[in-house]
Amino acid sequence: MTMELRRSPLHDRHAALGAKFAPFGGWEMPLEYAGGGVLREHSAVREAVGVFDVSHLGKARVTGPGAADFVNSCLTNDLGRIGPGKAQYTLCCDDATGGVIDDVIAYLHGDDHVFLIPNAANTAEVVRRLRAAAPPSVEVVNEHEDYAVLAVQGPRSAELVGSLGLPTEHDYMGFATAGDLTVCRTGYTGEHGYELVVPAGRAVAVWDELFAAGEPLGLRACGLGARDTLRTEMGYALHGQDLSVEITPVQARLGWAVGWNKPAFWGRDALVAEKAEGPRRTLRGLEALDRGIARPHMTVYAGEQAVGEVTSGTFSPTKKVAVALALVDTAAGLEDGATVEVDVRGRRAAMRLVKPPFVKPQVK
Amino acid sequence: MIPDDLRYTAEHEWVAATAGGPVRVGITHYAQDALGDIVYVQLPDAGAAVTAGEPIGEVESTKSVSEIYGPVTGKVVARNDKLADTPEVINTDPYGEGWLVEIEPSDPAALDGLLDAAAYRELTES
C-alpha cells in the first residue's frame, strides 16, 4: 500500500528555504533547514525565536448545545478546571483499557464550542470515536486541512507576534482571536511561545509577515528535528513513542491531566483501578553518564536484569549530554538518582534516572 | 563538494592517498549532510587492525547514527582526537579538520579498488 503524503500550505516556502523533508504522521514536513540544522534551530528557540510549521497537527471542532459537557465526558482532563478562552492538555483514552489513543489540546470557546488539536496521525480516530459517542445535538467536524498552525516559540516570540499587531499578553494556555486568527499561548518547546491557528489560505501571508519582521530578532525557521530535541529536554511525551494505546496516563505519569473526580471519561474504570493498584511501569527520565545516545526501543538494565525500554532519546543541545525517556518497571524499585545501563547497539551506556524536565521550562 | 583528488567508498567514506604512507579517512560532505548535526564520534584506537568493509566506528547526530566502515584493510596509525570535543567540524569541514583516522594499508594497491570522484558523484547523484 502506498499513501500519498499530505503537504502543508507552506510547502513551497519550506522548499525555498532548502528544507529537508521527512514523513510524519502521514504528512511531508520540514525536518531541518539549509543553513540551520537541529542545533542552530534549537538554540534559536532557547535564545531568540523560532517558527515551526506544525500544520500537520489535527484540528477538530465540537459544537452544539452541551458540546463542552460532552467532550468532558470523553476526554480525561476536567474542562471544569478552566474557563472560556483557555486551553487544556487532555487525553483521549480507550474506554476498555485506558491506553492513550491520543493526547490533545482542547480549546474551550464556550459551553457549546470546543476546538481540539490532536496529533496528525490520530485525528481521524479521535474524530471517529467522538462522533460515535456524540448526542444528536453535538456535531464533531474534522477540519484537519482547513487551518495551518504556526508555532512561534522563544524568549522573543512576544515581540515578534506583537509586531504583527496580534495579541500577546494573555496567560499561559490562554488564547485570543484576532480576525480569522487564533493566537494561543501554547507550545511544545518549554519556552514562552504562541501557536497561531491560521486559515489555510492565509498561511503564506502570515509566514511572510513573520519572516519580514523576524530577522532583527534572530528568527529562524525550525523543523521537526529541533522540535523533538526541544520537547525531549522538557520531558514532554510524544504520542507513538512515550504514549500509545499500550501505555496508560498512569504509566506515563500524566495523572495531572486526568479529572479523577469526574463521574465519567473514557477509560475511567481501568485507570482508577490501575492508579489504586499502582502502575507496573512508569515513564522516567534518563541522563547519560557516558557517550552514546539511547534511542527508542533500546533495553534498560539494572545489573543483568532488563528493567525497561527507552521510548524517546536524543542529544540535549542545551545540556550537551544525551537524555532519554524510558518506561521502567516499578518492581525494579529504582529511585531517581540510581544508575542504570542502556544497551546501545551492544555496548552498555551508563545513565542516571532523573525526574524530567531535563532543562528548566520558561513557558510562563 | 566531491574533491577530485580523493578516493571514495559506496558507504560515503573518503580516502586521501599519500605516496606510500598511511591514508587519511573521513566521511563525505554528502554523508555529513544526510546525518545532520554530528554530536558524537566513536573511533578505533591507534594500533587497531581494521578490515575493508567492516565497521570501525560510528558517527552519531541528533537524529541518527551511522557506522563508519574501513575503506581498506590495515592498521590504524592515528585518529583525530579533536573530534571528541568538537565533532561538529565533521559537518563544517568534512574533508579537512573533520578527518577521522589514518590507516596504514596492508596492501598499498588496495586504493585502486575504491571509487574515483566521478564514480562517487554518479553514485550520490543517481
From TrEMBL, chain A:
Database matches in InterPro entries: GcvT, GcvT/YgfZ/DmdA, GcvT/YgfZ_C, GcvT_bac, GcvT_C, GCVT_N, TrmE/GcvT-like
Keyword Phosphoprotein in record: no
Keyword list, A-Z: Aminotransferase, Transferase
EC top class named in words: transferase
EC number: 2.1.2.10
A Pfam family matched in the record: GCV_T
Purpose: The glycine cleavage system catalyzes the degradation of glycine.
Name the record gives this protein: Aminomethyltransferase
Gene name of the encoded protein: gcvT
From TrEMBL, chain B:
Modified residues (N6-lipoyllysine): K63
Cofactor note: Binds 1 lipoyl cofactor covalently.
Keyword annotations from UniProtKB, A to Z: Lipoyl
Lipoyl-binding domain boundaries: 22-104
PROSITE patterns: BIOTINYL_LIPOYL (PS50968), LIPOYL (PS00189)
Obligatory cofactor(s): (R)-lipoate
Entry annotated with the keyword DNA-binding: no
CDD domains named in the record: GCS_H
UniProt-listed Pfam families: GCV_H (PF01597)
Domain of life where this protein originates: Bacteria
Functional summary from the UniProt entry: The glycine cleavage system catalyzes the degradation of glycine. The H protein shuttles the methylamine group of glycine from the P protein to the T protein.
Quaternary structure and interacting proteins, as annotated: The glycine cleavage system is composed of four proteins: P, T, L and H.
Family: Belongs to the GcvH family.
Record NCBIfam families: gcvH, PRK01202.1
Stored PANTHER family: GLYCINE CLEAVAGE SYSTEM H PROTEIN, GLYCINE CLEAVAGE SYSTEM H PROTEIN-RELATED
Protein name: Glycine cleavage system H protein
Organism, scientific name: Phytohabitans aurantiacus
